[in-house]
Give the backbone structure.
Amino acid sequence: MANDFLQNFNVRCIGQSGTVTEVSTQQFDVVIVGAGFGGIGAAIQLKKLGYENILIVDRESDLGGTWHVNRYPGLAVDIPSTSYSYWFEPNPHWSRLFAPGGEIKRYASDVADKYDVRRHMRFNTAVDGARWDEDAQLWQVALADGDTLITRVLITATGVLSQPRSPQLPGINEFAGRVIHTAAWDDNYDFEGRRVAVIGTGATAVQLIPELAKQAADLTVYQRTPIHVGPKNDFAIPESLRRLFARAPLIQRAVRWITDMTYELTFVLGVLHYRRFQWLNTTGEYLSTLLRFISIRDKELRRKLTPAYDLGCKRPTFSNSYYRTFTKPHVHLQVTGVERFEPDGIVATDGTKTEIDALVLATGFDLWEANFPAIEIIGRDGRNLGKWWRNKGFQAYQGLTIPYFPNLLSLASPYAVSLNFFDMMEYQMRHMDRLLGEVRRRNATTFEITEEANDRFRDRMSKLQHNTVFYLGNCAGARSYYFSPHGETYLRATSTRATVSEQASFALSDYAIA
Ligand code: NAP
């Protein structure tokens, strides 16, 4: 593959609808959609392989992906920050075991600068879709502003939770107060002394509600499904320890090993081997019950906050203040659902009306409808990825490549995700290293996963689900985004170590490289 062309020239473009037009465009070796940790990691790997003609586009105004978009009060990483970094770039500066969101955004920025990937980024650039041009053996990437990019390889690093869900609740457009989604936080809105409602009690709400309660005069939380909340062992990392981490990275690596292993064991045993280790989940549920008992004296309130599904069906959450917040006199829990909005408030299905000034939607993200895939992608023979996934099931070889989609690496695919996003990046970067290295070694221009290899991988992954909490546990009432409307899950049911080491051993003959 040539590495050194960045050209402006005219090219025949096939629009998403199939119409052919002549446009002025730019050509790249690789276009990456998304400047979050996925896109940054992919760019670092490409640069290691010698690629320089790379463009990273992002619809936002800065890098950082989810850590740029999410800025709500209380935002912090929900796994220990000692484990939350690229394996090759430990960060000795985390201020807490669960670092606040701003620090993670800063880490993204520092890494992008250190590895010189920021100069490849183009912000405020939304992508509409991409189409494989069979004749030219190139991807045409259609931008929302009407421009088209041409690229040999397309990498979608659009994240898993990147399309905010704002449910069309009855009458919501009539509401005259402020409506703020947690993923579009308005830093200028002052909640001090306001009457506020929050819809949603997921992982975001667990972090946000205690913070909002400190400011709002009155806070009503509309809960549809309670969430398991465990005690959070969070603490400030002393300055002396941070200095030690900076001076002796091996010590930090040892600490990372401990937090990695703790999480890995919990995930492998409690989620993947639920059949044999169900007691681990039950122990976790007891801890959550104990936390409710310690935090709340009111038996009825405890009952309302008690989930009816097994721990592990949904992303587990940790907070020492969430349950206690509901005992404050100005905080109310509403569990009967929203009947309708009126200009000055919400009417619940039990007829209770609550007057509010502001509504916060902690309603999460649309994964299955809007994010798989996040842009329209048309591959070989006109195959539409979104439609194909919906007809044939959500699948991707090693969570990355899909038959009929040559030269596409889709980082946020089904089976890509395990517990820690950076573990996912590690194995994906290692996969890219081998695959693109081989493409280059053969002086080839295209790669495509074979149908046979994809089918084999998909069948293995779905069989592995049979021992998991998703398959054996009581997940029916969880309403977890881990499950598609048809009950499929997108999580990869292998241990992190197994996933990473598989990238050194997958058969390169699984790919057609030409
Ligand atoms: P979520 O887990 O999907 O929760 C959305 C909440 O909104 C749920 O309680 C849901 O209720 C409710 N909801 C949605 N539509 C509704 C409707 N029409 N009516 C009433 N309630 C509705 O989303 P999230 O809390 O934003 O968390 C998403 C994920 O982001 C987490 O699981 C986690 O992986 C990640 N996250 C990470 C961090 C971190 O690392 N620091 C922090 C926060 C979040 P139902 O459950 O009944 O559907």
